[in-house]
Amino acid sequence: MTAWQLAKRGFDVTVFDQWNTPNDRGASAGESRIFRTIYKEGPDYVPVLKKSYDMWEELQANQATSVLQMCGGLMIGRPDTHDVEAVISCAEAADLDHRVLNSHDMAREYPQFRLDDDEVGVFDPASGVFRPEAAVLTARKEAERLGADFRTYTRILNIRPLSQHVMIDTHDGAQAFDKVVVSTGPWVNELTDFGPDIVAPRRLVAMWFPARDVPLHTPANMPISIRRHPEGGFSCFPVLDGLGVKILPHHLAWATLDQVEDLPRFVEADVVRSTEHAVARLMPGLDPTPFRVSTWTEGFTKDEAPIVGPSAQDPRIVLAVGMSGQGFKFSPMMGSIVTDMVENGSSTDAIGLMDAQRFDGGGS
Ligand SMILES: Cc1cc2nc3c(=O)[nH]c(=O)nc-3n(C[C@H](O)[C@H](O)[C@H](O)COP(=O)(O)OP(=O)(O)OC[C@H]3O[C@@H](n4cnc5c(N)ncnc54)[C@H](O)[C@@H]3O)c2cc1C
């Protein structure tokens, strides 16, 4: 996304990726991602989310592949649950369209979800589901069309700011650049010196459960959702593969990894059983036996807000890391904000809570 934005504004762009772009190792893989506008993380994000939506529309205009399908979104839980309160308060603060559905409304309109009598669903019409690999590929093609050069399977070993240039070291040698953007996802600690107490890779697990009535569980009929319930919390993604709904459990710890390469492929039986239990209890149209269980990793900061801005080490190095499980939906705007920073040193779209220098002692 950053390469697309930089190339669009006329910069001469070189992208180094240790794998391909896209790939199945980083934080952007795994079939689906959620877009939401009513944001439980706070109304400060809403202007960036609205502008991101426009950029997604621009990216997919005239493309054969849809990257973002708007299907609406639900936050489901008791009205006094933190996240339910947070979305209602965000919708009111930012004056966003929404509906609060009680358990009877939900049973009638969205039978894919089983609610307790005292639960509600808060509907956000400006939500949808991404195909992230297609989105990354589309952005790459757009960047290449505008002149960007992708050096795939080329790992950056070191970034060295010198007086005239910033040097990039790879196994193929060193190359000098005027500016460098670091957007290394979960590998953040390899090319910055924040340290694992500030930002660290964590493991996320997703499981696909067969839908008994597949059409009922596709985006045409089923919104994306986030569930908060004493017996399970999860993100839920409608069927994209013709077979199953993806569930990403939140009520189980997201283990911190020392290194991204430590990501275990296999998942403890307790994690699967607990998610099966939540699905059996809360998703009546799914067979509570997952046919696929996969693991991914993402860089999380200690305050769970991204790190975006010029580094403390050298302002010619701009950081866009630590996306903390949120980054896909606003990634085009992160690219645009970073491009502003490369161009002018700052961005009027930047959000204070993402400030790259907010952590004492870290930030190169
Ligand atoms: C399972 C899961 C579910 C998620 N769900 C959502 C969601 O529903 N909605 C949402 O908005 N967000 C979600 N997120 C978060 C979002 O997907 C991420 O924040 C976003 O994709 C991060 O993108 P990135 O470009 O920062 O990182 P990545 O996609 O990981 O890209 C980093 C790239 O840097 C490359 N790289 C790293 N180090 C080097 C090096 N030394 N040299 C060369 N290349 C290097 C990697 O190969 C990789 O291609 C989720 C994340 C995960 C893991």
Automatic annotation (TrEMBL):
<dbReference type="GO" id="GO:0050660">
    <property type="term" value="F:flavin adenine dinucleotide binding"/>
</dbReference>
<dbReference type="GO" id="GO:0008115">
    <property type="term" value="F:sarcosine oxidase activity"/>
</dbReference>
<keyword id="KW-0285">Flavoprotein</keyword>
<keyword id="KW-0560">Oxidoreductase</keyword>
<feature type="domain" description="FAD dependent oxidoreductase">
    <location>
        <begin position="2"/>
        <end position="341"/>
    </location>
</feature>
<dbReference type="InterPro" id="IPR036188">
    <property type="entry name" value="FAD/NAD-bd_sf"/>
</dbReference>
<keyword id="KW-0274">FAD</keyword>
<protein>
    <submittedName>
        <fullName>Sarcosine oxidase</fullName>
        <ecNumber>1.5.3.1</ecNumber>
    </submittedName>
</protein>
<dbReference type="Pfam" id="PF01266">
    <property type="entry name" value="DAO"/>
</dbReference>
<dbReference type="InterPro" id="IPR006076">
    <property type="entry name" value="FAD-dep_OxRdtase"/>
</dbReference>
<dbReference type="InterPro" id="IPR045170">
    <property type="entry name" value="MTOX"/>
</dbReference>
